[in-house]
Amino acid sequence: MSTVYVFGHKNPDNDAIMSAVVLSQLLNQVNYDGNTYVARRLGSLPAESAKLLADNGVAEPELLEVIEAADEPQQVVLTDHNEDGQTVDGIDNAVVTGVVDHHRIGGFTTAAPLHYIALPWGSSCTIVAKLFEVLGVEPTREQATLLLSAMMTDTLMLKSPTTTDVDRAMAAKLGEQVGVDPVKFGMEVFLSRPSGSFTAAEMVGNDIKLFEVGGQQLLIGQYETVDKTRALGMIDEIREAMRAYQAEKGADGIVLCVTDIMEEGSQVLFEGATEVAQKGLGIADEHDGVWMPGVLSRKKQVAAPILAAAE
Ligand SMILES: [Mn+2]
What is the whole-number distance in angstroms between the Cα of residue 16 and the centre of ligand 1? Predict the structure, then answer.
């Protein structure tokens, strides 16, 4: 019997937090492998996650900064990510016993067999919700609420092209259990973000992931807003914050998508070495950014074509 840490990616979004929190609860409820599962986070809690956890009486996961080497290596379960560049520092000191994820698999290797659940659904929380069914457990109202919140934030209220029929069916089921309309509930979750007070640095660093693109380190950030006007009025500050973030992380280039969920598209900005990124997206950088209508998914509509262009 061991203590197993369960956590989502660095710069956590609501899906990274809720998938770790609710999956760890589920695994404890069924006494999975006789272990104790403890949710952790790899960065500050998103505002909407903090509010949802408080409203539902669930403790905030503690910050995990690094995993140190130990005689008995720390066991971990990764949710909502699998790539080295997105996980905890010191991951090589840990034994990954499980992954629950909805992203591409990026250079993942282990020494021993593991539980690896990868499904190309709209959110990791959709997969966690399905695991409740698989394990024959009925989610509590609180668990259903937390899962549904992350399904809505990750699929932008089911509008993102990453949304599948499974997500729509699961959202309807959880919405019925909680007694909410999933899309209206999702909009409330979005509006609980204090986006009106975001600084340029927060817009850049709030939700950003590191990718290896043709031998270069490329950061791809996404700032989701219900009104891009404020961000568009801060372009010079945002570009400066992009260059600062890139320098701090020692990356070669940085892409930022300012995604307007009401207008359903993204304003895309580039700094540093981004030739491959511009080629992959089929656009050339402009000072105010380039509006890409319909682009809502970083994974499917931004990272995937950029990675394909590097091949
Ligand atoms: Mn996710």
Answer: 6
Two tokens, residue 153: 């934030």
Reported as a single tens digit per residue, the pLDDT across 254-284 is 999 999 999 999 999 999 999 999 999 999 9
Q: How many whole angstroms from 71 Cα to the centroid of ligand 1?
A: 33
Start-end of CATH 3.10.310.20 domains in the chain: 196-309
- 72 Cα to the center of ligand 1, angstroms: 30
pLDDT, averaged across the chain: 96
**Distance (Å) from CA 6 to ligand 1 centroid:** 15
Cα-to-centroid distance, 102 and ligand 1 (Å): 7
- For the domain spanning 196-309, the CATH number is 3.10.310.20
Q: Class assignment of domain 3-191? A: alpha beta
Report the alpha-carbon distance of residue 29 to residue 137 in Å, rounded. 8
* Distance from Cα 101 to the centre of ligand 1, integer Å: 7
Tell me the whole-structure pTM to 2 decimals.
Answer: 0.91
